[in-house]
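TA notes, week 10

Several of you asked for a full example with nothing omitted. So below is the full record: structure tokens for the whole chain, then the designed sequence directly under it. When grading your own attempts, check the secondary structure regions first.
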């Protein structure tokens, strides 16, 4: 039950926190709640799939520890990151809040984390919350960094707030029930992190791919811990995403987001779009003479071996490019894309020409 690793996130103003990574760490949740918010009631937010598999066990641990736990179960998937669910959570919080106070526990993937985090950020101008990510994507990406939010009818993540959790508990046992497709989608963000920051880590991923795709705890703990360390270092330098330092984390994302939109949301998991998007960015990097074709091939091999898409299917390159131009971050002034200088080092380029970008997309679209 001891954490295999603790990754501190060092932030000013008392906003720093620990990320604990290990197997069986859910056992420590009631004590963590008690320590962070003594006497408070906890509202655990989870989705129906996660609840069916894991909630009874968690509730039992809280009962045994004598910590008052209430639950809010939302339907699974992006369709729950809505104003309606957000308002429901605020209502639940007012119902259970009393003189002892209330703490939120996000127990699920990025959807539960973003939604519960946003409710915690805004209820009474901020209450403490704990992130317990249950998807690989949430472990390596959404639960670290303090971005919370919901979607609006006009677009994804349009209402949100920065609100750092007080603690992140990653129990790798929970990942064992993840459907393989979700595991792979999260794995795309692991590959992204290695490609932009750390060549040795990429070599580790190449060597341990089999174990990682089975969510084997030892290999997974190392991969998750490295991703958290690397993301934490970036968040520490640019907590509120104001300095452009977080930009490199968008490697593969400008292409990926555009393809998700062009295909219609829901066709590809986000990580799947990012996988093929990273290959577009790698192709563009090679076209611009930053990396060799052999490096592109090496990345391609790994993505293919992990069972992630190496191409976009079902839409045209023009449709993807048109969506890219709608992305304000991309088109405001310059067309900014994150490229690779080598495996382990990303660079931001704002002088790629439309022709170069279109050619990179065309090479990754299968009709
Ligand atoms: N805040 C951030 O910085 C940030 C960063 C990246 C992504 N995000 C957000 O994260 C969301 C995507 O997160 P996600 O991919 O985790 O999606 P998700 O929360 O919808 O989870 C994916 C699926 O896995 C299921 N699931 C979760 N844990 C499980 C488990 N242990 N066993 C079995 N099934 C399980 C869920 O029920 C769901 O069907 C998006 O809304 C995205 O905008 C936020
Ligand atoms: Zn992503």
């Amino acid at each position: 039950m001891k954490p295999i690793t603790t990754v501190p996130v060092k932030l000013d103003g008392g906003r720093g926190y620990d990320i604990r990574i290990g197997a069986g760490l859910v056992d420590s949740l009631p004590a963590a709640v008690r320590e962070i918010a003594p006497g408070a009631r906890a509202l655990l937010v989870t989705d129906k799939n996660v609840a069916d598999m894991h909630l009874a066990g968690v509730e039992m641990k809280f009962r045994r520890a004598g910590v008052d736990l209430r639950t809010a179960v939302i339907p699974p998937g992006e369709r729950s990151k809505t104003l309606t669910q957000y308002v429901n959570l605020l209502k639940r919080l007012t119902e259970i809040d009393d003189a002892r106070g209330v703490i939120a526990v996000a127990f699920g993937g990025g959807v539960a984390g973003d939604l519960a985090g946003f409710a915690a950020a805004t209820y009474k101008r901020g209450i403490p919350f704990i992130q317990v990510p249950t998807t690989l994507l949430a472990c390596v990406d959404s639960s670290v960094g303090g971005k919370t939010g919901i979607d609006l009818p006009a677009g994804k993540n349009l209402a949100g707030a920065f609100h750092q959790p007080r603690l992140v508990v990653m129990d790798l046992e929970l990942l064992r029930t993840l459907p393989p497709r979700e595991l792979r989608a999260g794995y795309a963000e692991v590959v992204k992190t290695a490609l932009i920051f750390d060549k040795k880590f990429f070599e580790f991923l190449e060597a341990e791919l089999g174990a990682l795709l089975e969510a084997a705890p030892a290999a997974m703990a190392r991969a998750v811990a490295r991703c958290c360390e690397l993301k934490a270092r970036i968040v520490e330098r640019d907590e509120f995403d104001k300095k452009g330092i977080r930009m490199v984390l968008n490697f593969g994302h400008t292409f990926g987001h555009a393809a998700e939109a062009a295909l219609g949301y829901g066709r590809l998991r986000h990580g799947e779009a990012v996988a093929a998007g990273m290959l577009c960015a790698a192709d563009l990097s090679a076209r611009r003479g930053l990396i060799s074709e052999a490096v592109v091939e090496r990345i391609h091999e790994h993505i293919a071996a992990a069972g992630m898409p190496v191409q976009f299917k079902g839409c045209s390159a023009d449709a993807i490019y048109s969506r890219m131009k709608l992305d304000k971050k991309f088109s405001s002034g310059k067309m900014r894309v994150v490229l690779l200088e080598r495996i382990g080092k990303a660079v931001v380029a704002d002088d790629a020409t439309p022709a170069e970008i279109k050619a990179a997309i065309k090479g990754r679209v299968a009709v």
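The chain has two domains: 5-178, 251-366. Use that as a sanity check on your answer.
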